[in-house]
Amino acid sequence: MATITDDPASLFQPASRQAQNTSSIIVVLNQPILCKEAFRRCYGRAQWRLYADGGANRVRDIEDIEHNEFFPPHLILGDLDSLRVSTRMHYQQSSNHSVLVCRDEDQYSTDFGKAVRAVRALRRDFSAPSALADHALQKIPECESSIVNVREALPGFDDVNAACSNQDGVCNVIIFGGLGGRVDQGIGLLAELARENAANQDSLHFWLVSERSMSWVVNPSASLSKPLEASYSNSKRQTRHVIQLTPADVKHDMHAQLFSRNVGILPIFGPAHISTQGLEWDVEDWETSMTGQISTSNHVVSKKSIVELTTTAKVLFTVELGPSLLQQEPT
Known about the structure:
Elements: E1 2-6, E2 22-28, H1 36-45, E3 48-52, H2 55-62, E4 75-78, H3 85-94, E5 100-103, H4 111-123, H5 131-134, E6 138-139, H6 150-153, H7 157-164, E7 170-176, H8 183-199, E8 204-209, E9 213-218, H9 228-232, E10 239-244, E11 259-266, E12 272-277, E13 286-288, E14 295-299, E15 306-311, E16 315-321, H10 323-326
Parallel strand pairs: 1-10, 2-3, 2-7, 3-4, 4-5, 7-8
Antiparallel strand pairs: 5-6, 8-9, 9-16, 10-15, 11-14, 11-16, 12-13, 12-15
């Protein structure tokens, strides 16, 4: 059985501790950011930052002028119906690097979908026409020329190219917002998350940070390098996911509050059989479905904050953020 380590704790550590061949991109959707310290830490280590339409307003709302906080993006993207003019001017006129603001009027795509297209464009062959141009993306009216390719479009491209376009590495896409508003939009985001997770399993790892929790899709694939059809051809071919909720290279008591002990394993994409180790209520080959039994409000009891999970089908793993990531004042 193959083993994969899911290490959400590493996403909140300084960039100097980032694993080799990994990079991170922040995507902010149009929901309030209540876990400010989590955002602050992820922002500091991200190679690229994308705010989806009104998400830019949400970031500006948490900036603390008294502490000289300023979180400019590289790109603001969407149909721009929610972006405040004052927010756009704030970032374009105050940032020490150029902030690109682009309108994408595709009514068949959500802000998240548009953002993922841009992320994919950043990691593809940059000599070819970009996914941005494929969807008739244009700069805001005061910018005359349309976007031809990613290299021309994205500010600071050369600085992030090597890390974010590394096809041999994994890019962590950390999404803030999306589950705190309307139910239909939240469920839609989860559906898109599952779809993008399947399509980009080799290169992109999506992490969803909501008001109080962090969630991600856990796959049954025997190997992240194998095609999905091969992985799903035999439900017995599982991967053991080792979920590391405390950084492995630091003392446990120093970072015990990154996450609380509350976790859930949700079969929102279909029935699954799961086995766990490290939880208060561990299970073995346990059937779970949205019309049957669900493991919610479970507790991590492992002294090293490690949970082992195997599953025969895609599930959503969710863990509650700890106090240190929810605090509002800078540390």
